[in-house]
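We were asked to recover a plausible sequence for a given structure. The inputs and outputs are reproduced exactly as logged, with field labels preserved.

PROBLEM: sequence recovery
POSITIONS: 270
GIVEN STRUCTURE:
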């Protein structure tokens, strides 16, 4: 198991760096759509118990295409696209030769999957389109990774009070605090090392909200897996479980980074 984790990391980390730093935005958006497709496949698998590719293909494609559509047409078209997707999902269910039993739950879960996976993943593209956006995506990775690392070791050493015992019994309040401190310190070193020209207060603010969002993102996927009675979202990454297991924190952290940069008016600095 440990060897699989190491080998996977050796392959994945350079691949992520190349895609984030060197791929043109269009290619980055296309890769994000592919990743979103795989993540939605996992979501449908453990939440709706669908096996194989084709049964949920029509449900998956709208969400999978959203990151690419965001880049090509802009987020201004999100509202009409959401309307179209909602109508489409109802049409697919109505003409699927199934009875009405369970329709509310099924359509609700599919619309939720579109928003949870498709919409949140699209924010990777929105951040990438900002000036210096590739560095902000890596910033989010650094904050989330250090947050997880410090939370794990801090929780083991100091943890006494459970953070969310019914969802993730291993997480503690003390561990979460250690994670936020570690992620913030790492963010300060990252911004200083790459000379991004952002004030200390702004870096601390972004790192803190991204760290909190990452914790919530981890808990969000955990509660879905608990409800579905599964340990991992899938088995795509050897030794690491599924794709959603690796990006659950980022799904919440990246949108928070995007809107913080946008409304704090620091996105033009790189």
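RECOVERED SEQUENCE:
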């Amino acid at each position: 198991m440990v060897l699989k984790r190491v080998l996977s990391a050796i392959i994945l980390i350079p691949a992520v760096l190349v895609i984030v730093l060197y791929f043109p935005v269009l290619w980055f958006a296309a890769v994000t759509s592919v990743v979103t497709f795989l993540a939605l496949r996992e979501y449908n698998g453990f939440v709706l118990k669908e096996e194989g590719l084709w049964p949920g293909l029509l449900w998956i494609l709208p969400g999978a295409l959203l990151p690419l559509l965001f880049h090509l047409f802009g987020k201004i078209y999100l509202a009409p696209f959401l309307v179209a997707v909602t109508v489409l999902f109802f049409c697919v269910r109505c003409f699927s030769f199934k009875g009405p039993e369970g329709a509310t739950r099924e359509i609700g879960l599919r619309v939720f999957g579109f928003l949870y996976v498709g919409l949140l993943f699209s924010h990777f593209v929105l951040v990438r389109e900002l000036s210096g956006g590739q560095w902000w995506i890596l910033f989010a990775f650094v904050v989330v990774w250090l947050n997880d690392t410090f939370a794990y070791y801090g929780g083991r050493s100091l943890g006494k009070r459970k953070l969310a015992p019914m969802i993730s019994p291993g997480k503690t309040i003390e561990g979460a605090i250690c994670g936020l401190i570690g992620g913030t310190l790492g963010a300060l070193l990252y911004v200083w090392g790459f000379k991004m020209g952002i004030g200390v207060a702004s870096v601390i603010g972004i790192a803190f909200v991204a760290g909190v969002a990452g914790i919530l993102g981890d808990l969000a996927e955990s509660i879905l897996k608990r409800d579905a009675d599964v340990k991992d979202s899938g088995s795509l990454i050897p030794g690491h479980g599924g794709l959603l297991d690796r990006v659950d924190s980022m799904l919440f952290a990246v949108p928070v980074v995007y809107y913080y940069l946008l409304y704090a008016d620091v996105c033009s600095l790189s």
